[in-house]
Amino acid sequence: MQTLAAIDIGSNSCRLKIARVVQHSLRVVHEDREVTRLGTSVFETGLVSPDAMAATLRALKRFYRAVQQHGADQTRAVATAAMRDARNGRAFLAWVRDETGWEVEIISGLEEARLIHRGVVNNEPGTSGRCLLIDVGGGSCEVSLSERKRLKETISLPLGAVRLTEEFLKSDPPAKEEIARMKQFVSRELRKASRRVTPGEVQTVIATSGTAAALFEATRIMRKARAKDYMASARDVRRLADKLTKLKNEDRSAIPGIGPRRSEIVVAGAQVYSELLEHFALAGFRYSDMGLRDGVLAQMLAEQDSRTSAHQQYERDRWEAVLETCRRYGVDPRQAEPVRQHAAQLFNDMRTVHELPAEYQTWLEAAAMLRDIGKFMNYQGHHRHAQYIIANSEIFGFNATQRVITSAVARYIGKSRPEPEGRTMRQVPPEEHEHVKRAVVLLRLAVALNQDRASDVLRVRVRVYPRQVMLEISPGRTGAELELWSLRKEAAYFREVFRRELFVTLP
Q: Yes or no: is domain 306-452 CATH 3.40.50.10800?
């Protein structure tokens, strides 16, 4: 049985969850959490304070020991808003790497929302209809609209409880002017959210994170309701939020459900939830203890076990993100599809030649679809523009390294070749340079097979021999002369990369 570990380095707390893979599903064996306030100084000074670094590193070392004790086969650590904003974030994560060996990935707000969505819908009942997910963390607030367990819209807002407390609430209890300024800021950000997320008629509203847990429990106790099937109503959340703003920290911490670990930042978090429920005219929310770490675990399982429903959903979501990126930049996916088909065929028929890792097929196919998006900026130099857009865009399911690799494959299908000292290849991990070069050759061949967009799609048969590769082209209705010429132009580069001759023939 494989054991997977997920670590969420948040702006307010760090969380660990370890799970074993049992019959293609996850069984949790260990959880841990520590409030470290990593983002406390970041949102005011732009820097992680030495105290916050030390507290976070102590927690991560404890997590490391737990990961070792449970024999985790794979560990993925992600960092969110505080690390996105901190000028010294990279230096801190280098320190974490030296102490634990973990390469911590700083994920974007939208990727954070996607993973939270995946963690919730994989584990919570009642999420198959139209569902709104809300996560108010320490540094950001993610709002996502889900339908039939598929993410439809999402937005990340700078409305984290730690961030707002540091920026607006200087007094204890907060002054009326401070609350007024904060609410004005929250309202402005929610108006932005309305342009992207329009809940309409939602069947379920689910909130995650520590602030949601505190508000849910405090209102439940106030109502003397059972936890099962309880929903925190918008009215009760507003009443509680207004009550909390009038209390000092020690009095807030004494409220059942709040406690001392949450009392310092709960005023800001309660106001965000209250404003958000009212802004979108929502009746209230259910609480889920699922979150980012569960989404990370679900993705880890999906990436390595093709027999899980999570894998199928992950692949659908990822491919839909590629198609949406095409449409956003004016590329018709139907016109790019023949190149993708040929790229996939060449990848599969020439496995013994290119010897690329299996995951490169996804990146090669994505590059085939996205290679022309640079024309949105300018036809001149569009390969360079495509590389920049792919590497720097939000493409769900592709982390930063995967986007860089995909962008490099799409970049070199013109006259230029991938060189280690080139600007694009300097962004690619050195161990991937040879892989990228081989994938580039496959894509160049796929593009060469599709020179005449007006003709029908050509059929190609691949024959692999010890010293040569033969492509047999079946001409379409309008012939294949241009494709034949384009393929033969690639023969020299093919020989340089694969040390085999490339022959192209007609039957």
A: no
* Opening angle at CA 104, ends 99 and 106, nearest 5: 145
Cα first-last separation, the chain: 51
pLDDT at 150 over 90: no
pLDDT level of residue 337 (50, 70, 90 thresholds): very high
Which CATH class for the 124-289 domain? alpha beta
* Residue carrying structure tokens 């996502």: 144
- Stretch 203-227: mean pLDDT, rounded? 89
Q: Give the integer Cα–Cα distance in Å for 415 and 418.
A: 10
- Coil/strand/helix, residue 9: strand
The structural domains of the chain, with segments of one domain joined by +, span 3-107, 124-289, 306-452
64 exposed, middle or buried (CB, 10 Å; 0-12, 13-18, 19+)? buried
* 8 A C-beta contact, residue 269 and residue 216: no
pLDDT at residue 481, as a whole number: 83
- Residue appearing with tokens 């857009």: 389
At position 468, the amino acid (one-letter code) is Q
pLDDT digits (tens, 9 = 90+) for 49-83: 999 999 999 999 999 999 999 999 999 999 998 89
3-107: what CATH class?
alpha beta
**Closest C-alpha to 329, from 410, 444, 428:** 410
> pLDDT tens-digit profile of 450-475?
886 555 678 899 999 999 999 998 87
Rounded to an integer, what distance in angstroms lies between the CA atom of residue 130 and that of residue 206? 11
Beta strands in 176-246 (DSSP E): 204-208, 232-233
H or E, element range at 19: strand 13-22
Using the 8-state DSSP alphabet, how is residue 500 labeled? S
Q: How far is CA 42 from CA 86, 166, 386, in A?
A: 6, 9, 33
In contact, 133 and 143? CB cutoff 8 Å: yes
Element of type H or E holding 226? none
Task: Please tell me if the domain spanning 3-107 has the same topology as the one spanning 306-452.
Answer: no
pLDDT exceeds cutoff 70 at 107: yes
Over the stretch 169-211, which tens digit does the pLDDT of each residue have? 999 899 999 999 999 999 999 998 888 777 777 888 999 989 9
